[in-house]
Design goal:
The protein is an alpha+beta fold. It has eight helices and eight strands, in the order E-E-E-E-E-H-H-H-H-E-E-E-H-H-H-H. The N and C termini lie far apart (54 Å). A hairpin with a 5-residue loop joins strand 4 and strand 5. The chain folds into two domains: 75 residues, OB fold (Dihydrolipoamide Acetyltransferase, E2P) (Beta Barrel); 165 residues, de novo design (two linked rop proteins), CATH 1.20.1440. It is elongated and about 65 Å long. Bound molecules: zinc ion (ZN). The site of zinc ion (ZN) has 8 residues, from loops. It comes from Adlercreutzia hattorii. This is DNA repair protein RecO.
């Protein structure tokens, strides 16, 4: 009996080698759920899948439902996002986005905003300078956390709900485990680190500003990296481990 097939538009998040010449693709489908499919022969140089199944490619795919893993039957390229593979800095800034999407998206759990925001940020990064690529990456990582129910509290104390003044030059206690900033009276309740108010202002700007505005707005590399460190602390506290590609970004010396 022929296997049932289905079609989907999806973003390639990750490729894992399988056997001699196959790949397992981790895909983020348009409804925000995660799919995994085998691209048979995709590692052979002449395979028509080879160039269409690179990370950050958006494809219209036809898959057959398999017993354990689905099988990719056809793939038509919708967007290649070439710059994100050819430019080292852009690639390093985009990698944590793909890694966090792979960690947060779930099989059979629709979350369309994950796909929509990924499309917008990858398009924006495609034409951005290195400085703005880092800012866009930080913004998307925060938005992915927010869409997954892990939006950090940046302007009100995460413990008691009192507004916290983000005064210029101030350093405020931030609890990654608690998921946000703490006021003076609550700072002892949770393990916290001191974070510059400016970093929290940038994080708030990233969470509340569309990507095209971020791409054209101001960008400060050290502020973006301070926010990326905040994201790493949140990832460690809430999804069990740090993001490897962020660790690479911090230590690679690319920026
Ligand atoms: Zn408080």
């Amino acid at each position: 009996m022929a296997q049932p097939t289905y079609s989907l538009r999806a973003l390639v998040l990750r490729r894992t080698k399988l056997g001699e010449s196959d790949l397992i693709l981790t895909l983020l489908s348009e409804d925000g759920s995660q799919k995994r499919a085998v691209a048979k022969g995709a590692r052979r140089p002449k395979s028509s899948f080879a160039a269409r199944t690179e990370p950050f490619c958006v494809i219209d795919a036809l898959c057959a439902t398999g017993r354990s893993l689905d099988i990719l039957k056809e793939a038509r390229l919708v967007a290649a996002h070439d710059v994100l593979r050819c430019n080292l800095e852009a690639s390093a800034a985009a990698a944590p986005v793909a890694e966090l999407l792979a960690r947060m998206s779930q099989r059979d759990l629709a979350n369309p905003r994950l796909f929509q925001s990924a499309m917008r940020v990858l398009d924006a990064m495609d034409g951005a300078d290195d400085n703005h690529c880092a800012a866009l990456s930080a913004a998307e990582l925060l938005k992915i956390l927010a869409f997954s129910g892990l939006r950090p509290s940046l302007e009100v104390c995460v413990s008691c709900g009192e507004p916290v003044a983000l005064t210029e030059g101030a350093r405020l206690p931030f609890s990654a485990a608690g998921g946000g900033v703490l006021c003076e009276s609550c700072r002892g309740l949770d393990e916290s680190v001191l974070v510059d108010a400016g970093t929290l202002c940038w994080a708030q700007y990233f969470l509340t500003t569309p990507f095209d505005a971020i791409a054209e707005g101001p960008a400060d590399l050290s502020a973006s990296f301070a926010v990326l460190h905040l994201v790493q602390d949140l990832a460690r506290a809430h999804i069990g481990s740090s993001l490897k590609s962020l660790e690479f970004l911090f230590t690679s010396g690319l920026f």
